[in-house]
Structure formats: structure tokens, C-alpha cells
Amino acid sequence: MEVSNAQAVAVWFGSGSRGDPGTQGGGRPGNLARGLITPAAHDPTTKRSSDVSENEVTAISADIINHTCRKCADESHVFSYDLCTTSLQTVPVSHVANLQGLALIAMELALNNASNTLLIIQNLLTSNESLDPFAVVCLKDCLQLYSDGIRTLVDAVGAFLGEQYDNANIWLSAVMQASDTCEEGFKEKEGEVLPSPLTNENYNLFQLCDIALCIGHLLTSDSTMLMRSSAT
Prior knowledge:
Blueprint: H1 5-13, H2 54-75, H3 81-89, H4 99-127, H5 133-161, H6 165-185, H7 199-231
Helix pairs in contact: 1-5, 2-3, 4-5, 4-7, 5-6, 6-7
């Protein structure tokens, strides 16, 4: 299905326009993943959804989440299995989400992270007059990086909903690079390394995007294998 960026923004922000990412409250993680449920949680050929117990659904979702996070962690030394499992499991709809749904949840969490970090940066710049001048420059750079990153994440969500996984992966990689650039900026002061006030935020944004990126690669690989199988 084709999903425009405007539609993705409308679902996420609950409005028809993007507006200023620094002033939006953001959506509740899981909004975009609703409807992308595991067949086992709602499969008319096996059980009615009303017949699936809460324990069964939780077991199904935990297995999908753990398997996905473990597979991604096995393929990358920078991927955090613990953050992957804990972050996904905190969103209620993850208990019935399929693989695509888990990726969307990760992107929604990334949008929440980026929106909140933008507010943190703005607060640091306006309320802390004792900041090192170099830190002020770094924070202003991060402000721009995160503002652009939110828009890029929205583009990634739109591409993912449209099953354009390669495009989504490119944009997710760009946001991951932006979080690295923000963090590394504080280390560039000559003669000393300034402590970054955004280390946790940058790390979490990188990891959340990496979850969606890994799932995008998994979906692309699965599609390629299916195409090769049908060709033979």
C-alpha cells in the first residue's frame, strides 16, 4: 500500500499537518502498529481472537520479540539485545504485533525519543547560562540534527508503511548517523573532551533506529528469498 508522509504524520501526531517538531507532543507508541498483528493472535483458521488467552498472546509476542532481537544482536556487535527486548515489550500493542509491527513500534519510540530530546536541548540552551561556549555550539548543532532527524524518521515511517523497505533503511541509517554526529561533537574541543549531556538520548535513538533497520533488512531478505523461490 502507498502511504504518504502526510498520512504517516497525521497518524503519529494526530493532526493533518507536520507543524513544528519541537512543539508537537508526539503520538503514543503503537498507534501505527495497530492492525499489524500476529496470525496466531487472530487467525480464523485456528482460533478466534476472543479464544486466545492473554498468556498465549504474551508467549507468542515474547517469542517473536526475543527471536528478532537475538537475531539482530547476533548480526551486529553494536546492537543491544537488552534494549531491544525491554523497549518493545513496554508497548502494549507489541503483544500482538507481527514483524512489521515491531519495526513500526521501534520507529514510534524513536520519534518519541527524538521529540523529547529536542525539548531537552531547547531547555539546556535557554535555561543554562553557565554553559561552555563550545557546548552551546554543539547543542545548536544537535538541535538542527534532531529537527532534521524527526522529519527523516517520518519519511522512514511513510516508506516502511508503503513497504519501501530499502528507502526506509536509508533514512533510518541517516538518523543513526545524526545521533553519532551529535555525540561526537562534544569530543572535538581542542585540549579537552566535554561531557555530553545527551549521551543516553543519543544512544537510545541509535539503538531504536537500529531495531527498525535490522527488521527492515530481515524483511528485504525474506522478500528476496521468496522471489528467488518463485523464479525457480
